[in-house]
Amino acid sequence: MILIYLGCALALFLGFRIYTNKYYNPYTLTLIYGKKGCGKSTVAQKYIYQHYKRGWHIYYNRGDSRFTKGEAIDASRLWEVEFKPHSLLIIDEVNLLWDNRQFKTFPKELAEWFRLQRHYKVKVILFSQTADADKKIRDLTDTVYLCKRYFEVFICCTPYTKEIIYREPQFAGDISGFIDHYRKLSFGPFGCRFCWLPKWIKYHDSFADLTNREEANSDKSVSPDRLDDSGNSRRFWSVLRNRKNSRQKTRHEKYRRDKRRTR
To answer: Around Cβ 88, how many Cβ atoms within 10 Å?
Structure first.
C-alpha cells in the first residue's frame, strides 16, 4: 500500500514539473561568494564545461585568462555586446570590477542591462571574494551561493535566496519597514552544489607560479578540443605533462642561478 501511495505521489510530482516547466526561467543572475582559494574558479570551470557540452554560448571577462572555452569580452561595457541567445556569462572577481565604494561611477546602461538580462537570454554567474560588489547588482541576484572547501578537495556551495520581508517593531520606539532577508534553500546536503576539485582542476592553472614573469605572461591555455572526453584525451594529458616538465625546468634553472649567486 505504501508503494502505491509513493507511486501516486511521484506521478503527481512529475506531472506538475512537466506542466510548469514551460514557465521555468533558465536565464538567472547568480552570485557566488567565497574566500580566496576556496575553489570559486574551479566551480566556474565546472559551469563552463557543463554548459559548453549542452550547447550554450560561453562568454567571460577579458581579464579572466584562465578560462579556455568561449569568447572574451569587455565586461565593463556589457550593454554594447551582442550576445547570442542561450548564452552563459562568467565574471570572476566582480568585486574588483564593480566596487560598491565606486557606486557613483557605475554606468546607468550597465544597471539597465542587468535588470533586463533575462530578456537577452543570458545566464550570468558572478564570483566574488567579499560582499562589496555594487549594491545594484547584489539587489538583482536570484540566488546567492556561499562557497567553502572541505578536506582540501571537496567544494560545497550552499544556496540562499533573497527575500523582501516586513519587519515589525521589536520594542518601543523601534522603526518598522521592509528589509532584505536571505533564506537558506538547502536542508543539510540536499540542495547544495558540490564540486570534486581533482576532477576539474586540470582544466585551469589555479596554482600558477607567478614568481617567473616570463612564464606567468605566457599562454597556458588549452584549446576546447583538447578538453573533450573523446579521443583527444591522450593529447590533453601530453599537454599537461609538457607543462609540468617546463615548470620543473624553470624551477631548476632558478635554483641554479640562486646557487651561483651565493658562491
So the answer is: 24
Q: Domain locations in the chain? A: 25-203, 213-262
Per-residue confidence (pLDDT) for residue 126, from 0 to 100: 92
Residue 61 contacts residue 155 (beta carbons within 8 Å): no
263 DSSP β-pair partners: none
pLDDT, one tens digit per residue, over 15-38 is: 888 888 778 888 989 999 988 888
DSSP string, 105-151: G--HHHHHHHHTGGGGTEEEEEEESSS-B-HHHHTT-SEEEEEEEET
Local structure of 161: helix, strand or coil: strand
Best CA proximity match to 90, nearest among 129, 63, 54:
63
Predicted confidence (pLDDT) at residue 229 exceeds the cutoff of 50: no
| Other beta carbons within 10 Å of 84 | 12
For residues 37-55, average pLDDT? 87
Helix (H) and strand (E) counts in the chain: 8, 9
**CATH hierarchy code of domain 25-203:** 3.40.50.300
CB 181 within 8 A of CB 162: yes
Contact yes or no for 61/72 (Cβ under 8 A): yes
Q: Helix or strand or coil: residue 69?
A: coil
Q: Given this model, what pLDDT does residue 77 score?
A: 85
